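Quick one - first record:
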Amino acid sequence: MDIRHTVGQYVETKVPIVEPSSTIGTIEQLLLERASDFETISYIYVVDNKGVLVGIVSIKEVFGIKKDVLVRNVMKQQLVIAHPSTHPERVATLAIKYNLKAIPIADRENKFLGVIPSDAILNILHREHTEAFLRSAGIHPFKDSVRDVVGGSVISHFKKRLPWLLIGLVGGVLAAAVVEFFETALTQMIILASFIPAVVYIADAVGVQSQTIFIRNLVLEHKVSLLPYLKREIGVGLLIAVVLGVLIAVFSMVFWYNPVLSFVLGLSFFLAIITAVIVGVFLPWILWKMGRDPVFGAGPFATVIRDIASLFIYFMIASISFKVFL
């Protein structure tokens, strides 16, 4: 396993450790005598004689408790623990979710290995944010995304940025093929071409909103029940689709006074938005199930799928409407 994708590289072992039978006075003495030996002193870690992590005591609580109190009587036993193979972003989100200054690391038998301190958590957040930002823009992550994105060579940037642009180019060709396929509908009402950017943009915008929220939920919760989430998101999408569909139909009727155009635009907006919501949820979810970073589903690949789907819906509705009403 690539160590860059695990928290093993961030583990700090120089932390205060005591046994459950120790007293608060023992902790105070430990901190006074050996404070300089520790790299981080956010928490006191309680480990039994087998090396298993059984509890923690916050440093700010120590000096408010009587010295003769046993650690086992005051330690917190509901622990948030990560493993050496855990992805760094997962550890950082655990720290944020539970408002922790450090995350303990233990093996599968819960034997204490060390902690991920606050400065490492900040480092992880910065790196993961940079990599996610690059992926969403269609740029493959660099070996060191923080440094190389600024100081990388022309060739390295070329290699990282070209692949997704080639996919975008293929998507553009496919979109052109869709438009050409519905050439008859376009020639019947040339003004349809003027609304292509609007249909595509609105679908993309709603799709980006849905996928961004879904990806963050995947990262924070790690497990998301797809059907209940999709049901809620489609509900939101339906409301947005109705409002925007009605508005574009009313505006086009006022300015062009063409009932067929208004119907085509209103229904196209509605269906394109619903489709974009479904793509925005399903694509990251499929990538997540495949063990890939769901952020890949938020870049140019998702945009290409939404654009082609939106154009197909738009011209299909236009073609059917012309046959029925004209």
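second record:
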Amino acid sequence: MKLPRYWAKGSAGKVMEDFACWGWSDISVEEAQERGEQRAASVAKIIRSGLRPDHYLYGDRPMREKIIEEWEREDATTYAAVTLNAYGCQILNTASVMFVDVDLPMIPAWDTIKHKLAGILGNKDPSPRERQESEALAKIEEMIRIDRQCGIRAYRTAAGLRYLFTHAHADPTAESTLRAMEELGADPLYMRLCKIQECFRARLNPKPWRCGIKPLRITYPWEDETAEQSALHWIAAHEKKAQEYATCSLIGQFGSKTMDTEIARVVEFHDSATKAESGLTLA
């Protein structure tokens, strides 16, 4: 997993002194600073040539997130970590426990109204959202039909569905993993992020704007103690408000229920943190 412990800005020198890039390191701030300067110099060279530096700015950079908690194996390698993302939500990062988030298309308001009117007249047909979910879940049922050892937990989210593979570990950078995610309808940006970060990701608490508060506007690493205190104050307010909501709702376990201790710990933690069986409103 790419979850750097240290971050520092490096500038491109006197010629472009206002231009800077973030560098990162698992060893020290000094090494992060050096990498930042190297990246800034590379991007400055691209800019001077008249090209767009998109790849250098975004394509190879891990997420700049505060590490809250890490879980290690006996060999001291990290297999899961909780981080704080840019807008203030906690993210569960897993090295090989596979999460897949699937966003379902927005239902046109008129379709929802028509279904409700039909219901008043006695029509018991599934709602447009229920039809979407059934079509999506049919894909994991087909996976399980092909491989009887396959086990997948399915959850409902505010925007769609989330799958958690429980029967085996997966490599987030492998083409076979990315193909499976694509077949299930995963967001291409999510797939790309998993590959860059070399891990799977699952949001644990509600998005702030869905529970009535503004996103965190203070970037990590905190600029100074005042910024840190402001960030901690926001986090406390978000956590308090988030108690009223769930992040996802368990639909059920499909296929095999067998899982190893590492996956079992991820499942237990995820379901508790997201309030997956609380019945609360999704956010």
